[in-house]
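Chapter review: from sequence to fold.
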Amino acid sequence: MSIAYTKLYHPLRVPLAAEMHSRPSLRLRAPETLTHLAIYARSDAHLGGDNLLTQQVILEDFCRHFGVASPAGQGKYFFHDFGRFRLQWECHTEFATYTFVANALAAAEQHAPESGPEQMFADVPLKHLPQQWLFELQGKVMVAAHVALLPFQDDSQPALPSRQIFEGGVLVGSEVLQRGEIWTDFLIQADGFSRFVVRDKGFLDQQAGRIIQRLLEIETYRMMALLGLPHAQRASPVLNTIESELVTLTEAMTMASNGNGHGGTANADAEQSLLRQIIDLAARIEKLALENSYRFAASKAYFKLVQSRTDEMREARIEGVPTIQEFMDRRLAPAMNTCEAIVWRQASLAERIAHTNDLLRTRVGIVQEQQNRKILQSMNARAAQQLRLQQAVEGLSVAAISYYMAGLVQYAGKGLKAMGVPLNPDLMTGLLLPVIAGLVWWGLRKLHQGIH
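The token string follows.
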């Protein structure tokens, strides 16, 4: 019966259901230290590059050093206990994250319960990683962070972490879930890693792991969102140039439309030149939009994730210290607004170029219609001339045909006279000439009417 029931299931039912549980948070208990890396190995993944394959090769190199089998197929999540540390690997669309956690036994040996963050940051899981593997990551590490999870001992503990831990001038901190504290400066320290201190004031079950996961996601998504800022900065002068050229073209169109309209060939050539320049501007703005569209869309999505993760932290203010949400609103939001402004400028400029192109094409069409009207008028004039000429030729034709007909009548009269009929051929021809001319004219009229 079970086999019969399995045939009812959609083939994607199981993998889709498993997707909701594929990225569990780590189980953490203070004191512990973590090292987090985000590897941005392929900058062209959206153009057809296989980011998953690239990231799996990097993970396979790491696992080979320890004699561990790496995930096969399309797996995007991997967790393994390597003895001295635990690794949680996740592959995303553009990057992959490595979160290393020192095991509880190693942490107990290295860190006494009263150990502060200074001692914990001096001995992090990074030291257990293969140096050759780290060397091969040059130019690929987008995020590198150390996290110290400390137990909150008593109220005698200093409210603020030691300034020796953080080199930045602005310390960011907040109380989260009413059961812990987070401290950082979001600054890359002298060792190349950013630092986070999390104080456990009574986290329940997996709350510590979820909080640290959200904190690391905020750091990772923040950096990925900022990838759009260099694109915006490079696009701004290009947009300024295109806007300036569009203004110049519009002024040239205005001057041409206000001209006297003489010199049709010269005006047509000028308008064709303007049209080619506008098409060139349209192609340039389209190329710029295509180059930046994916990056700006990705930055917007990452920024929304940052906002979502900060909301999930449920921060409470610590007196005299800005919260993570405030820091992001002040530092990250303006960068994202710059990207949004560039997106708006690109769309607006493309629309204005399209309107200018339509106006110029309309004007060229009107000029062509005027030229066609003049051509039709000249054709009508030539047709009228031809009609008048035809009428003149028609009169001559009547005279010529009447002359020949009269000649035939005269010959007929002479023949009758020779046969003895008493008549005067000349008199008869003169009397019948009007009749002949009338009949010829009437016959030609009827012929023309039948043709038309």
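Two observations follow directly from the output. The chain is about 60% helix and 15% strand. The chain has a mean pLDDT of 84.
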